[in-house]
Amino acid sequence: MSSSIAANIARIRARVQAAAVGAGRDPNEITLMAVSKTFPAESIREAYAAGLRTFGENRVQEFATKAEALDLKDASFHLLGHLQSNKAAKAVELFDAVDSVDSVRLSAKLNSAAQEAGKALDVLLDVNIGNEAAKSGLRPDIHDEEFQQLLIEVAKSSNLKVRGLLCIPPHTDDPNGARPYFRSMRELREQITALNIPNVEMTTLSMGMSHDFEVAIDEGSTCVRLGTAIFGERQKT
């Protein structure tokens, strides 16, 4: 399996580089995140051995069991999935970043937990770019009351640092179907950047997964999140 994961990563890196060059961008400004949810610690170690250092998990409890088997000092683990505020303290303990902040309540809980832990926590704001009822996330409108209140909250948070935005667009079989959503995310990032809010940087635009990451790179993504393309078909949970 190790050689398969390594080979997959090599192919993906070549595609990332080609997409970046095609868009007139520096490939080095794009982070390849391995989404390791449902995959065992062994698979994470194999991806690490192949050169990856950034990993994404969706569930606090699932990663807690894996974390005990991992000792990867320079790896960075990000929580991607929707986080219930009552699990904020455990998330702060386990993860280097939470990429799914979508409410004032959650940001306050994370900041409080990070304070208690004596830790600075990087976060991304999770945007429901397609306004889909079945998905969590902020409405893609900086004039929306919840969005405004969240920006106010994080601006005064002592232990949180907003690094950018994340989205999962509505799925389409044609990768280009996601392009308008990726473009809207880039525009949203530019709107927030122009506000010059303390504690809020917009250096990260996390968008693009296994089937559409090249389109995402073309539209400005700085972090692509790939699971199946790296590890193969997901194990059922």
Concise overview:
The chain has 237 residues and is α/β, with parallel strands linked by helices. It has helices at 2-22, 41-49, 60-67, 88-94, 104-117, 145-155, 179-193, 213-218, 228-231, and strands spanning 31-35, 54-57, 76-79, 97-101, 121-127, 160-167, 200-206, 223-226. It has one domain (2-231): Alanine racemase (TIM Barrel, Alpha-Beta Barrel), CATH 3.20.20.10.
How is the secondary structure organized here?
Elements: H1 2-22, E1 31-35, H2 41-49, E2 54-57, H3 60-67, E3 76-79, H4 88-94, E4 97-101, H5 104-117, E5 121-127, H6 145-155, E6 160-167, H7 179-193, E7 200-206, H8 213-218, E8 223-226, H9 228-231
Parallel strand pairs: 1-2, 1-8, 2-3, 3-4, 4-5, 5-6, 6-7
Helix pairs in contact: 1-2, 4-5
CATH class identity: Alpha Beta
The secondary structure category is alpha/beta
Order of helices and strands: HEHEHEHEHEHEHEHEH
Instruction: Tally the beta strands.
Output: 8
Written overview of the protein:
The protein is of the alpha/beta class and 237 residues long. The protein has one domain (2-231): TIM Barrel. 40% of the residues lie in helices and 19% in strands. The protein is built from nine helices and eight strands. Strands 7-6-5-4-3-2-1-8 form an eight-stranded parallel sheet. Helix 1 (2-22) packs across helix 2 (41-49) and helix 4 (88-94) packs across helix 5. It is globular, with a radius of gyration of 17 Å.
